[in-house]
Amino acid sequence: MRDEQICRGSVRLSHRRWSAFVLSNSSDDGDHRGDEGRANPRKEEMASSVLVEHRRFEMVQLASGKVRRETRCREPNDDVLDWRVDLCVRNDVDKLYRAITDSSSDPNPHNSMERGLDQVGVQLMTPLVVEVLQKLCFEEKLAFRFFSWAARQENYSHEPQVYNEMIDILSSTKYKVKQFRIICDLLDYMKRKEKNSVPVEVIVNILRQYTEKHLTHLEKFAKKKKIRVNTATEVYALNLLLDALCKCSLVEDAEAMFSKIKNKVKPNSHTFNILFFGWCRVRNPSKGMSILEDMIKMGHTPDNFTYNTAIDTFCKAGMVKEASELLEFMKTKGSTMSSPTAKTYAIMIVALVQNDKMEECFKLLEDMINSGCLPDVSTYKELIEGMCSAGKVEAAYKLLEEMGNKGFPPDVVTYNCFLKVLCDQKNSDEALRLFSKMIEVDCTPSVHTFNMLITMFFEMGDPDGAFETWNEMDKRGCKHNTDTYCLMVDGLFDCNKMEAASFLLEEIVNRGMKLPYQKFDSFLKQLSEIGDLQAIHRLSEHMRKYYNPAMARRFALTQKRKSASLRGK
């Protein structure tokens, strides 16, 4: 970098350094001349070689705006020269930056910055301009004014490196929406001035920064037909541009661009997926199916995620018929990689149930079982939740029955999925009905089954139902775990059943159960509110067995403050 950051004055510096070196050698010659007054040939030869090496030391500015030295012999004092050159660049950068910042505080700032820059009298070079822009990276307005001023200077013109730096500053600012027009104008200016082609990285960076925020201002970029940026075509940049257009619902523009460029750039599967999702976004399934067919003809295989997302999109938009056609397309033209999964069937079955197409629903369920796509826990939950949400509880029972008839009887996990949906809906009648069915088919309920019922009853304000469930656990030989005790104590406190809650807390202490830290905190606060000092001390001592004593002391202080407030009432 030190070799690249060098100013025009470096040649003059080097000339003075070499001249001083020659004069020094010449003076030494004079001191050692003979009486004959003849110069020392060895010294003259050295001075001549030094001047030759000096001519080989030239500054060359590349098209990229970077500067390098040509090959030369390195002398011991070159480090001194490099230091002087770097100092020269830094001084010029500081002068320009000071002129810019001083003008920003001027009460009449109009054109004051330009006048201040004119008075600096610095010879501009690409590395120097880039350095100043980098110092102004968070002041996009000042940076753009300096950029415009530099473009008007004699014996200087912006190189692509400077344009890239300016575009990066404008596209990285927090005022992206406002500055986007300037970026478009800047790209258009580069085209009209016949500058070098804009690097593809620049366009990709602009598109990425705007598409991440899903800004619809990309429509300006798409519709601004006068901008034609000549970039090296490659599939990554194409995909990013197509994705940006599709996210702005400009799918027709995206496909038109793809049609023009597909003979120059070989699209990959991601390219087709972008267009396919774009047509799904604007709810045009026929166009989406056409893209899928083209994708398969090109030798690409759509994956399950692509199909499932499209089917889900169609179903949520009420386009069940189109979703069914896509599912049929998967079964007939899909490969092993893209064949329907249990997730695919679950999406379709729920959509059919919600649209009261029960006959088609169970026909599809039969196809799913026959194809070997058995639903897992999450898929079961989606199926049952979708049916119950649509008010089709009987359809959910029939689902369990159909699975059993096909040799896949539901187990306790399946029933718990069903029960979870009913408990969340606070449908106690159906929840108890399902619980009875579990007992009827000899499916032993788990502790999780009872915990869900207890939670439901307390949320409904029915502590008696929770106690009945608690007693049913004892009858069934299902042991109460820590979660069961916590649910009961919390629920009883909320229902103002203080004596029953204190009794269960006493049982927790006697059984030596380790409660979660948050529950200790909650229960101690509840006991402090009712002023049960004995229970507080017992629970605090019990807590010392499992947690830091300092934590117990903190709760003891809390207990004392609560007790004092109670006595003061």
TrEMBL record:
InterPro entries: PPR_rpt (IPR002885), TPR-like_helical_dom_sf (IPR011990). SUPFAM superfamilies: TPR-like. Keywords: Repeat. Residues 24-45 are annotated as: Disordered. PPR repeats lie at residues 268-302, 303-337, 341-375, 376-410, 411-445, 446-480, 481-515. The keyword Protein biosynthesis does not apply. The keyword Repeat applies. PROSITE patterns: PPR (PS51375). Residues 29-45 have a biased composition (Basic and acidic residues). Pfam families: PPR, PPR_1, PPR_2. NCBIfam families: PPR. Belongs to the PPR family. P subfamily. This is Pentatricopeptide repeat-containing protein. The lineage of its organism: Eukaryota, Viridiplantae, Streptophyta, Embryophyta, Tracheophyta.
